[in-house]
Batch of 3 targets.
Target 1
Amino acid sequence: MSTMWQKWVAKRFYFQGQKQLSQKDVLIFIYQQGYLYLVLILITFVAGVNYANNLILGFCFLITAVLCISFYITFKQLHDLAIEVESNDIPKVGETLQLKIYFKQSSAQQRYLWIKTESQLHQVLINEKKHSFILNFNAEKRGEFQFPPIQIFSVYPFGLVRAWTYLYLNNKAWIAPKASTGSSENKHHQKAYEPDLDEFRELRNYHLGDSFSAISWKQAARGQGLYVKIFEQFEDLHRIEIHYQHMPANSHEEKLSLMMGLVEQAEQLNCQYALYLPNAELTLGNGQQQCAAAKLLLAQA
């Protein structure tokens, strides 16, 4: 029975990035101390009828009206609220995956909400037309990350009634491998960055970002302009090919971690790099977009 209920809820509250909550998206029912409140209503009604006491019956009708008003106010906390979800980051194993939730309402009003997941519970006050909130999840394993169902509910104003909705996200998130660099690779990497003067190739025009130590000051002193000395090894530093088969590791995960480490080193040194995996590859490049593409490729490997 519980499995059928979960399937129905997941189908009913399937979330595709954004939604404006309507009447069919909000569930509402008595909540916790509300059951005791119902018992109080029943007791006062029975007592008022048995003793034919209009004062007790009047009190019974009063507290019943409070319960009815609670249903309406609690329902309005969620009704007509627009929700948008976004997650574009690709964290590495051990880092935090952020899910950004944006709340929008047509007019500024106070909404007292709770956001609940399998292991988190947060209280949120929305009093502006636009409000954002970030949920953090631990990235424990490389690969695809499935967001748990998110429940958004309210028990305002008296805690007698709860109105709630679910977000079953179809957003896909990916976790990249943890960066790892062996000591042997570091030594080889440092040696590769020591240009050999005997392997001089050519002079080329100076570009913004080139090292001043590579400038040919002799040509600059003659007034011929700024040129950079290109050596065989020095040229190779700016183009790195990272091959899966060349990683000195036995397991698949260790190889991906080493590749992630080389990607980070190349980004720090502003080098262009390409990735070659058994079933995919990334062309030569560098920068923020290249790094994001490399993370995604390694996460999906």
Target 2
Amino acid sequence: MPDLQLLIFLVILLALIFDFINGFHDTANAIATSVSTRAIHPQHAIIMAAVLNFFGAMYSTGVAKTIGSDIVKSASHVDEHVLIAALFGAIVWNIITWKFAMPSSSSHALIGGVIGAVIMSSSGVDGLNFEGIGKIILSLILSPVVGMVSGCIIMLFLFRFFGHFRPTSINGKFKKMQILSAATMAFSHGSNDAQKSMGIITLALLSGGYIDVFEVPTYVKVLAATAMACGTAVGGWRIIKTIGGKIFKLQPISGFSADLNSSIIIFGATLLHLPVSTTHVVSGSIMGVGAAKRINAVRWGVAQQMVAAWILTIPCTAIMGALTYKFIILFV
């Protein structure tokens, strides 16, 4: 069996790979609307998103503490094998969904992987903190619904105030404003998503005895923020195409509304220390913005595929995490 130091290093490496993949998988969240409306050049959008993802990731550690302490009852219920299995399951799922251009949730994937690996370990079901898991899952479920409703409200509000202007005039002004809304979206994305791998790395350090209390070390924050920024710089063009054009044909005013709404919800969740799926919040916002124009403007078939991925992610990654843990114990 590999020694503890090697296993800790492997957990950190896999967490950073997960963060990198999360970055390019979720790049669409921050820039798809502004790229699809041609408010900003794609390369400039990616650079902006990468930089602001980094600074967003350095903002706080509240979500990291939720991930690290609310899924399992204590650090004693997990070891490096559990975390390796959980991360591996989440990474594989993210790659599969990216391959099929399916906007799925990295948050769901990671949580499902941890749940499956813990259940398969010696801790079993008793190692899970069901109250904490319930809170996390509730935030993951409610956030896209809130995004859809509030996105519709914001869009209706803008229609009321700007509906009498010529479309070309309004869209020209909102193209410039989209750059600002995309920037806030990128920062909020980093503030929530990068903390998930921070939480896993810190949990591994705590369970291995390298730290005494659950406090995210500065070097862990820098590593996770850098990995996400690098992943964002690579870009996830497959998912950008789905988010930016297949759900609803965006105009600058609707793209601005979707980004503004999403960034408020995601950053609000960060302040409440709640992990949310940025992919699903953005998708919900776009659906709400489209429905404000007219219900049949939204391509609900694409929405159904996304809901299917939303439902399947946690059970699928739980199975992957459980099988990976079993393989590690039997053969490694």
Target 3
Amino acid sequence: MRSAHPALYQSQSEVIEGRQWVVDLDFDSVFDRVNHDRLMHKLKEDRDDTVRLRLLNRYLKAGIESNGPVEKTQEGVPQGSPLSPLLSNIVLNELDWELERRGHTLVR
């Protein structure tokens, strides 16, 4: 969903169809907390392309510079990068699948 309105409409439809609960979650700093090892493991499961995976791993570990020396990055994806939403969603898909496995309806 691209905005909150379609998610609200979908949630309303679920209540009309008999769901009793709607839970609103806000993932605080989701881009900052992506676990590199978990992400890389998930990507290796889907496609074992060592050249691209090595490049992506270097991209994730490149570090950030903020008014001083470069700081190593142990987790998270670079904010403002076109890859950040994609990489975050790859990790969040596991949550989606687990919620669906438990019989929950998900609107994200």
